[in-house]
Amino acid sequence: MDSELDALIQRADQADPVASEQLFRMLYHELHRLAEMQLRRANASVTLGTTTLLHEAYLNMTGRPQLAFPDRLRFLSYASRAMRGLIIDYARRRRARRRGSRFEVTLEGADLLPETGAIDGLEIANLGDALDELAAIEPRLAQLVDLHFFCGFSFIEIAALRGVSDRTIQRDWRKARALLHRSILGDGEPTSG
């Protein structure tokens, strides 16, 4: 199945519309699960529907012909980032309408990246910005956050997808959390160490 999926992803990357449609159908349930998880994380502050989010993310992805996804992991990671970006934009617009375009940072003392539970629209927007900064210096760690926190993959699943140990993923998770915490709480941009 994975080799069939990888072949389909590669054909879709080469602008094959039939392959793109097959890929979307094949991964629809997994993408729907990702969308549900994204919306759960965003709490009640986002009133988007799961199907709307999934289809908007798909349109976002297919509207960028320069994107390439060599494997399932990178495809799902990008899909998660696309969904997260849509939720962040939605939350920012909604918050701006409510507050007259002013933002208030309320993350002081908050536990960044809880294992379960939701975060509000502003926190997810701040987290999105911090993840973008992290992706610029440590793309592997930013992808891990997308896969674990936003996609809901376990450390064991991510380790298997990456071909590394569960311990390595847990160590990377701690490092990603620390760098994001530092970035969000204003100690500067995350720095690799």
Concise structural overview:
With 193 residues, the protein is mainly alpha-helical. The protein has helices at residues 2-13, 17-41, 50-62, 72-99, 121-137, 139-150, 155-162, 166-184.
Structure description:
The model is unreliable at 101-118 (pLDDT under 50). The protein has helices spanning 2-13, 17-41, 50-62, 72-99, 121-137, 139-150, 155-162, 166-184. The protein has 193 residues and is mostly helical. Helix 3 (50-62) packs across helix 4 (72-99). The protein has one domain.
Blueprint (SSEs and pairs):
Elements: H1 2-13, H2 17-41, H3 50-62, H4 72-99, H5 121-137, H6 139-150, H7 155-162, H8 166-184
Helix pairs in contact: 1-2, 2-3, 2-4, 3-4, 4-5, 4-6, 5-6, 5-8, 6-8, 7-8
Helix-strand pattern, N to C? Answer: HHHHHHHH
Shape: globular
Radius of gyration from CA coordinates: 17 Å
Summarize model confidence as the mean pLDDT: 75
Largest sheet: none
Number of domains: 1
Beta-strand percent range: under 5%
Specify the number of helices: 8
Oligomer: single chain
Indicate the low-confidence ranges by residue numbers.
101-118
Helix content: 55-70%
Quick one: how many beta strands?
0
Broad structural category: mainly alpha
Euclidean distance between termini CA atoms: 38 Å
Task: Give the key terms.
mainly alpha
